Amino acid sequence: MQAFLTDHSALISLSILLLMFVGFFLERLPAAAMAMVGAAAFLVLGYLDEAGALSAFSNSAPITIGAMFILAASLRRTGVLDAMAASVLQVADKSAVGALLLLGTIVSVASAFVNNTAVVVILLPIVIELSQRLKISEKKLLIPLSYISILAGTCTLIGTSTNLLVAGVAQENGLEPFGIFEITPIGLVTFASGIAILLGLGWLLLPRSEGDVARPALDSSYLTDVYVREEAPAVGKLVSEVPELAKKGINVISLFRGNRRLAVGDEDSVLKAGDRITLRADLQELLTMVDSGLFRIGIKLRQLDGGAEEHAQATVTPNDPNIGRRISEMTYLSRHAVTVRGLTRFGSLPGPDLASARLKAGDRMIIDGTPGELRDLAASGALVVDTSLKVEPFRRKRGPLAIAILIAVILSSAVFGVPLLITSLIGVGAVLAFGCLTLNDAFEAMDAGVLTLIIAMLMVGAGLQSAGGVEALVSALQPVLVTASPFWLVLMVYLLTSVLTEVVTNAAVAVIMTPLVIAIGTQLGIDPRALVVAVMFGASASFASPIGYQTNTIVHAAGNYRFSDFLKIGVPMNLIVGVATSVAIYFFYLV
Prior knowledge:
Elements: H1 2-7, H2 9-26, H3 31-44, H4 50-58, H5 60-77, H6 80-92, H7 96-113, H8 116-133, H9 139-153, H10 161-172, H11 184-205, E1 221-228, E2 250-257, E3 260-262, E4 276-282, H12 283-292, E5 295-297, E6 310-316, H13 331-335, E7 339-344, E8 364-369, H14 371-379, E9 383-386, H15 399-414, H16 420-433, H17 439-445, H18 448-466, H19 469-481, H20 486-503, H21 506-524, H22 528-540, H23 550-558, H24 563-590
Antiparallel strand pairs: 1-4, 1-5, 2-3, 2-4, 6-8, 6-9, 7-8
Helix pairs in contact: 2-3, 2-19, 3-18, 4-18, 5-10, 5-15, 5-16, 5-17, 6-7, 6-8, 7-8, 7-9, 8-9, 8-23, 9-11, 9-23, 10-21, 10-22, 11-24, 15-16, 18-21, 19-21, 20-21, 20-22, 20-24, 21-22, 22-24
């Protein structure tokens, strides 16, 4: 048996790889699980030993990618990306063209330096709202949002995790490390060609909506009452002049002084201590306002010094005796020292203000109290209390610091030649030390599925090389490739990688293709760096399917697209961008 496994190791290893690709395509198991099954097969058959398995953990790629995930999360946690997104809607009120240009600029710049999945997730609701304001079908904007983020991600080494992964595997296979901006000239050609297609053919090939259907808000808004404190910075200002009330997720409804309602936009409505502002806010903005301490927010009838308070979400059950009562009349407000910060209701916003809103079954409230008070409240059975809120307040005061740390990470590597692994880990330490995000935020930012997939595929790659699979594949392809000119070889590598990426996760394709093209380039006397860059770009150039790249999957669901919608615009994108990128690689590396 052992002799058979040894004599046919190359064929068996390639068969395992083929079965893995079929598994990725069928999606019976998550991609990370499928990769682990493949790695386990190589271990069981003896094609991967302990040293080979451990080499996956010593590769710089997964560590660097995890660190960059955390640095991107610090920009999100401090509200930097959110503030950039809000600026688009402000411009939209003045100029539709200006708003679209600003949106494209923000997506491009952010995606070149931050994980583009995070950028798309943050900008998704902005694009939907922008489409409604400009009376443009959201189907015309959501696919371009994903495509632009993909194109911009190719402009720097840190723009996508795929770039970092390919660079890490290439370095492990003997190539010199890639600089952050080494691929930028090629990336700019890729970006320009892709944008040209979107501008020239996008309005023709992108789908039209079958009619605008009113959609519910992507994030529930909470009704709350905000009271202006004595000596607060807001005193003496108009509502529109208070930065905390002008955020994207906040909408002021009314302003009261005593029992008298004032016009929010009236120049005579300068805020005074004690004024009550009724507004709706998304959960993150509501918690940010609460933690800022600049306003008194919500309703609290009973005072009790009981220690530190925490946020909780309480859902009204059908047997709650307070159903039909106003918030200010709820019995548990007089029994428990808790504060009702906000109220939300599925499908509609209660009102007209927090104090007079009447409870209904299913309503959700944000309540603050000590752990003991919240436990007692939950024990009553009238409310289902959840203290594990996943939404945290913004840490906006640390936003400039998060930006400065990311810039320092980039410049240290690009200008002074410090390895990106080192600078990114130092950056992670800095954002944690200065409170840009918490340790839990950092753990949540590291996508366990992505990192597991990468490490498992690195094991598969090591097993494939050890079993002779890579060498056998190169030998099989050599008669076809030896007659190809360098340009056609680059183009074939690019297109093969791109096609595989459309049906298989790009991390798996990148790990397998990188050592393969290095071996091909070495045997044919062509700079393998050029072929590695072709893999790098081809693995990111997933335009023709919603499953090849995560941002495509996100907008596919949000925009209710059909699979064919991606094919119509994606196939021309793949072909034209592929040719343009291959020409750039050829002239940059092989001439």
